[in-house]
Amino acid sequence: MGTIRDGINGPFRGRVGSVIGSSWRKIHYIKGLPRRQKRGATEKQAVQRQKFKLLNEFLLPIASLLELGFAQHTGTSTGRNAAFSANFAHAFNENGAGIALNYPALQLSQGTLCPAGNEQAWLEADDLCVSWNPKTYGMGGSIDDTAHVLAYSPAELFFRSNDLSDMRQDGSARIKLGGLNQSEGLHVWLFFADRHRQQVSKSIYIPLSSTNA
User: Fold this and answer.
1) How much is the pTM?
2) For position 33, what pLDDT does the model report?
3) Do 142 and 179 share a structural domain?
4) Which of residues 141 and 212 earns the better pLDDT score?
5) Cβ(116)–Cβ(132) under 8 Å?
């Protein structure tokens, strides 16, 4: 803060640009405006940011798979962006403990190709086994549709996928988990793509069962 001596125009009062003129006991002062303090995020904004972060971190490692899974919905968007938009509204569980991804609700693909039905998943030693109805060709699907199985371990933030030679007509696929930590369980999805990689089915979330029923 500085003082002002009377000049040709005299002292001033009030705000001029970024300074304020005032006086006290016949002494005229000039001082700068206080800097505005940045407001912290509101609770609602903080929740939204956490949701964005959780979903993006999950989708980023599987971006190439999402290019296929959302091939019918990308247009000028990327597969990951299309997946984000398709999932954000229902991707989360919210409770007193915080926010977590709602894995069964997540869609890794959307399309018009026929899914299989009767999907099952179970563990055999260090392998994940997945089966489905192989006789759904001719009903919006073909025998040579490629089966895409994805397994996710929240404990290690790690994905495993199947051999891309697995087809609809095979009725099953197997993923070698190796030393993948299963302490928090695995989340498993399955979808199909046609031989041209242009048509896909919606993804199906498959809960793990103790044995093959």
Assistant:
1) 0.77
2) 62
3) yes
4) 141
5) yes
Question: What residue has token string 């959307």?
Answer: 110
Same domain, 117 and 62: yes
Structural domain for 26, as ranges: 2-32
Q: Is 37 contained in some domain?
A: no
What are the beta bridge partners of residue 206?
A: none
CATH of the domain at 180: 2.60.40.10
Same domain for 75 and 14, yes or no, is no
Full 3-state SS string of the chain: CEECCCCCCCCCCEEECCEEEEEECCEEEEEECCCCCCCCCCHHHHHHHHHHHHHHHHHHHHHHHHHHHCCCCCCCCCHHHHHHHHHHHHCEEEECCEEEECHHHCCCCCCCECCCCCCEEEEECCEEEEECCCCCCCCCCCCCCEEEEEEEECCCCEEEECCCCCEHHHCEEEEECCCCCCCCCCEEEEEEECCCCCCEECCEECCEECCCC
Show the tokens assigned to 192.
């199909």
Query: What's the pLDDT tens digit per position in 18-41?
Result: 567 666 555 666 666 666 655 667
Cβ contacts of residue 42 below 8 Å, gap of 6+?
none
192 and 104, same structural domain? yes
For residue 63 the two structure tokens come to 């971006």
Domain identity same for 75 and 121: yes
For the chain, the domain total comes to 2
Q: Is the pLDDT of residue 4 over 70?
A: no
